[in-house]
Amino acid sequence: MLLWARERAREAGLRSVSSGTGSALRLLAASVDAKAVAEIGTGTGVSGIHLLHGMRPDGVLTTVDPEPEHQQFARQAFRACGFASNRARFIPGRALDVLPRLADAGYDLVFCDGDRQEVMEYLAESLRLLRPGGLVVFEGVFANGRTVGSGPQPTEVLRQRELLRAVRESQELVPSLLPVGDGLLCAVKR
Q1: What's 37-95 look like in SS3?
Q2: What is the pLDDT of residues 57-73, one digit of tens each?
Q3: CATH number at residue 61
Q4: What is the average pLDDT score of the chain?
Q5: Cα(70)–Cα(61) distance, rounded to whole angstroms?
Q6: Which residues contact 151 (CB under 8 A, 6 or more apart)?
Q7: What does residue 153 show for φ and ψ, rounded to 5 degrees?
Q8: Tens of pLDDT along 135-148?
Q9: Rounded Cα gap, residues 157 and 183, in angstroms
Q10: Which distant-in-sequence residues (6+ apart) come within 8 Å of 69 by Cβ?
Q11: What's the sign of the alpha-carbon dihedral 167, 174, 182, 65?
């Protein structure tokens, strides 16, 4: 089913998380015994499948994406993997419009794989959403090697650098950068 979801992503012109990133997501969800996970960027469900496999059997994935069509692919993929329909809550819309409506300290893990221009806002919302001991995870922080490259960079890369600096300097977070996929920035909320 992962291959089917990856193929739907390719057809839609979306990037999906690598197998290594997926394995790390599954491990991270299991490590916090995740019952409630928020995902920014449903895509076609590749990352969601990995997260659901790592979550508790009664866990619920709340996934936000501006494209309802992509969420339909994810819904099909989750069902084909054998996940009950009540294991995922699909919310169509822009993440910054939806996240403020989610419960404070109600999540064990927040996975951010949305608009790269909005990562600092995602960080602020994640800190509000996470319980103490919860994890925030950002995908793609290496920006295909451009994050560490020198010379002028697009705004997206500058925002990634700003995110890395903010997480590193935060007294509220214990961070680690995992070199899987295109870089996975993880941080535990104290």
Answers
A1: EEEECCCCCHHHHHHHHHCCCCCEEEEEECCHHHHHHHHHHHHHCCCCHHHEEEEECCH
A2: 999 999 999 999 999 99
A3: 3.40.50.150
A4: 94
A5: 16
A6: none
A7: -130, 155
A8: 999 999 987 777 76
A9: 13
A10: 12
A11: negative
Could you tell me the mean pLDDT of each successive run of 10 residues in the chain, 190 residues long?
88 91 98 98 97 98 96 95 97 98 98 96 98 97 74 84 96 97 96
User: What are 28's two structure tokens?
Assistant: 């991270």
pLDDT at 148: 66
Residues in the chain: 190
Q: Is 86 exposed, middle or buried (0-12, 13-18, 19+ CB in 10 A)?
A: exposed
Percent of the chain with pLDDT over 70: 98
* Per-residue pLDDT reduced to its tens digit, 109-132: 999 999 999 999 999 999 999 999
Q: Residue 52 sits in which domain range?
A: 2-189
Residue written as tokens 């290496």? 142
With H, G, I as helix, E, B as strand and everything else as coil, classify residue 186: strand
Our count of domains for the chain comes to 1
Q: How far is CA 135 from CA 4, 87, 150, 157, in A?
A: 28, 20, 30, 23
Q: Is the CB of residue 116 less than 8 Å from the CB of residue 140?
A: yes
CB 136 within 8 A of CB 187: yes
